Recover the amino acids of this structure.
């Protein structure tokens, strides 16, 4: 009974958090609520027997993302700009998208249905063959690192690319600011022209 | 950075060593329990980020220098891709770890999975910290 009730209770909390996010103008509060959202989501994933994903969600979603968003807020300020009005076309678009998504979920198999498509493609092979072919007890590790090793290599490259992009975007702008400050200082030394002030 | 409330500093001092230990457990126990390189890297990076938040980013950068994490990002991908090159050189398909130990293919799989998970750990840990350092640059 608790296995059924717990996910529903967590989903309701998630919905409450999302609705609570909507009217907020203070981005600090938004970041705090998003962290709470991620943490509830991590709990939900553990309750649904996906501890691997739950662990990632807790560490990345609730932990690191929150820190990065806070660091970003420290740079750009934590109040949302005023004068925002409700745009009816945006509301309509959101509502239509929501209805389409809800309609789409009606075509999904029941949760945990053993006849669902995902349980009858390659999954039985992986579960059956992992002990003899790979020899590790955790089938998820065997799938991620061996059977789907190319995918995981791609994922690792994506993470590397993300880090590279951040360096290119942020480090460069910081260096330019440092250069500009140094140029300004040099100009000051040589009794700066008035337009530099 | 000796000012500020003492509670976060005491809690961080108690929490950070077990966090790092837990990351190692998740890494090396990934074949038996939940977790693997990605999770371990994220948890280890969280521990260092917590250290940076509480004691100052410059302290975190002294423990894990920015040059190390920037070098670590491509290093992890190279470890992973290098395992594939090694299996190619041993005459099998790319990332077919069985070739690493032809007499005992599951043993080769074991070794290959351990190595690629190490690559994932290095890249994830380094990337998370690189982004954190980039975001907090010029503060402290």
């Amino acid at each position: 009974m608790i296995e059924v009730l717990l996910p529903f209770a967590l989903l309701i909390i998630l919905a409450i958090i999302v609705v609570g996010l909507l009217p907020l103008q203070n981005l600090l509060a938004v970041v705090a609520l998003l962290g709470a959202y991620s943490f509830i989501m991590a709990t939900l994933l553990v309750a649904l027997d996906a501890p691997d994903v739950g662990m990632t969600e807790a560490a990345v979603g609730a932990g690191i993302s929150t820190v990065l968003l806070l660091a970003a807020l420290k740079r750009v300020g934590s109040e949302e700009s005023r004068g925002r009005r409700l745009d009816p076309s945006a509301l309509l678009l959101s509502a239509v998208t929501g209805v389409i998504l809800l309609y789409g979920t009606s075509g999904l198999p029941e949760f945990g249905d053993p006849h669902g498509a995902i349980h009858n493609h390659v999954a039985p092979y992986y579960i059956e063959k992992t002990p003899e072919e790979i020899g590790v007890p955790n089938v998820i590790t065997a799938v991620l690192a061996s059977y789907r090793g190319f995918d995981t290599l791609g994922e690792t490259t994506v993470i590397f690319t993300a880090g590279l992009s951040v360096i290119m975007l942020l480090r460069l702008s910081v260096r330019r600011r440092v250069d500009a400050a140094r140029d300004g200082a040099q100009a000051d030394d040589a009794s700066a022209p008035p337009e530099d002030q | 950075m000796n000012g500020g409330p003492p509670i976060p500093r005491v809690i961080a001092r108690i929490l950070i060593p077990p966090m790092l230990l837990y990351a190692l457990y998740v890494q090396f126990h990934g074949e038996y329990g939940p977790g693997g390189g990605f999770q371990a890297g994220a948890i280890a990076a969280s521990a260092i980020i917590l250290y940076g938040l509480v004691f100052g980013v410059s302290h975190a950068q002294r423990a894990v220098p920015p040059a190390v994490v920037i070098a670590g990002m491509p290093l992890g991908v190279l470890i992973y891709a290098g395992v594939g090159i090694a299996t190619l050189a041993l005459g099998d398909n790319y990332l077919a770890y069985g070739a690493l130990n032809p007499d005992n293919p599951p043993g080769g799989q074991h070794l290959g999975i351990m190595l690629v998970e190490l690559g994932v750990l290095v890249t994830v840990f380094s990337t998370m910290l690189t982004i954190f350092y980039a975001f907090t640059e010029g503060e402290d």
